[in-house]
Amino acid sequence: MRKDNSVSVAARGLSHSYGELRSLQRIDLAAADGEVVALVGPSGCGKSTLLEIVCGLREPSTGEVEAGGAAGATGRLAHCAYMPQRDLLLPWFSALDNAALALRNRGAGKAEARREAGALFERFGLAGFEGARPQELSGGMRQRVAFLRTLVAGKPVLALDEPFASLDAISRAEMQGWLAGALRADSRTVLLVSHDIEEALYLADRVVVLSARPGRIVTELSAPHPRAEDRDHAVTDPAFVTVREHALVSLREGAR
Questions:
Q1: 141 in a domain, yes or no?
Q2: Is residue 110 domain-resident?
């Protein structure tokens, strides 16, 4: 695989199978430093598996993959922070201690980790909830804590697997606007899995549409207004609507 310092994540000829079941087929994909790339496609097409491979949680059956210049699973894991669909907050920890957990795992002391994570609570709309247990937080606030925990891990690549799938439509739209702001303020390379075309086009610089299993790349689309401050205006803009319709057509064709 060609080395390129501007490329943060790269896959070439990547395929994966679970026994006889082929989940991904010859994926060629690259994400530049600071680029947000969204993956969309039918359920079961291998989107989450692709994230897990990039993050070093699995190895591909064939092909090559790198993250942060590292090809081995351990090296990829060292460069990637993975946020699964469920927030996985520890119910016996406060919001602050949950957010600080990634720092503790990096070797920071309890007081240092709390101080560093706590400094971000106001920016993340969590000020005043440092001592709250997860069950005392709304779904959106739980996701903010989970994202804060992912961010403070300090890794250059973030892998977000449908972070807002469990939220209602209103909360989801609010969280999309919030995440857009967070990514504007702290640029990272992001791979985002979503079932929501509008969400993908709003949050990402580029959207990769996968086919039904085994997942293969059907098309790639550039987002017209990635992470615009005014979400409602961005998603109703005619250019955005045109690209969204193109993406939907590609999804339908790839599902056949």
A1: no
A2: no
Which parts of the chain are beta strand (E)? 7-18, 21-32, 36-40, 62-67, 80-83, 157-161, 189-193, 206-210, 217-222
Beta-carbon contacts of 238 under 8 Å, excluding residues fewer than 6 positions away, are none
* Residue 32's CATH number: 3.40.50.300
Q: Which residue, among 130, 128, 129, has the nearest Cα to 116 in the 3D structure?
A: 130
- 205 within domain boundaries: yes
Residue type, 243: V
Number of domains in the chain: 1
Residues 190-221: pLDDT tens digits? 999 998 999 999 999 999 999 999 999 999 99
Looking at the DSSP assignment, which residues form a beta bridge with residue 210?
Answer: 217
* pLDDT, tens digit (0-9, with 9 covering 90-100), for 91-141: 999 999 999 998 998 888 999 999 999 999 998 889 999 999 999 999 989
Domain of 220 in residue numbering reads as 7-86+157-255
